[in-house]
Amino acid sequence: MNRSDICSCVLDVVRDISEDSTVSYETEIDDIELDSIGWMRCLVAIEEKLGCAVDPAVFFSGINDSIEKLCGSLLQYFNITD
Amino acid sequence: MRDNIYIRSYVSFIPEKRISVDEIFAQLSDDATDGSSLTRFKADSHTESVAVFDTDPELGTALMRAAGEALEKADTAPEDISYIIFGNEHIAYTDLCSPVHTVRSELKLTRARILPVMHPCAAFLSALDLADKLLCGEENGNILYLSGCRWKSFGERYISFAMRGDGVGAAVISNTSGEFAVKGTNVMNLSNSLHDICGNKKTDEKISRFNLIVKGAAFLKESLGKFGVSAEDIVRIIQPNAGFTVYNELYPHFSGVGKEKFFFDNLADGGHICDIDIFRNLKSFTEAGTLKSGDRLVLYTPDIELSYDVNYYSALIEKT
Hints:
By secondary structure, chain A is mostly helical.
């Protein structure tokens, strides 16, 4: 699992569940039309695609104010630095 | 495992009047809807309309009818009711009277003590859990369980993953015989509030919301283990009408219990009606006529406080 796997997985899942193909790395979380159930679905889908559990405290952290920041938190969580 | 508590009868009534989810959503502010859109809410909840009592007397009259019918179906004499358990403040008092007290006096349940269990969405399962302790030593011990709700504002109806409707329910729980034997119960109280006792923020709302589902799934899994059954051993899980996505995707993912085990037939019409959902769904499922003696079901419901603290209850019941 590398940076690209995680970032593309997050982007694909959020685009799919929000049904918004314009979501990009720069998109702010608050601008994505997803409620709490929607974000939980994203977490579940990401876990299933990556085949491993993600700490919800990392996923739902308030510092993740954009898709880019969310990807960054997950990369740090999985200890992927390259 | 207990073998002496039974669900002897159970009835539910929901009013004929409906309000559409579209109409309720139109009355709610964006803040109240957690950023969700009507389209997304309907996709996640599968709810189209909720049942509505216009007045408190409608609620009270329906409760009286449900209680009378539950007693009649159970063939239980009024003097054989030892307790009236109820779980919702809506039937504790209205502007006019206390419906629970009125049922007690009108139906001449003279020996019955009124016992409130303020876990509205799970009070029936709480009553099943308490029944063997309360009825211990009684030769013909019976509990009349009552539930009823009437939400008076649009804001009260929307609870993020579900839309609340109005209705009433009644059941007789007995230590003699009944349609279902209660083979086991499980309870877990989860401290999950956003703030501590001094009002300091201690967790993020998204984490608390996530916790209540993940811990519920874990509780459900734990319950099956405690009951000594696997998901394959049970015919169905009867859960509240509180969201399609929650029980079709999230619970299966976190509990490992297949989505085909959950009950979804009453999601579209009526709304989430406290624990009346359990009676209503159990009735719908049994009316299909496929249940055989010995078939086992799990009743499951989380009772979620406004603070996000949760009271989880489950029961394993077996068709007699």
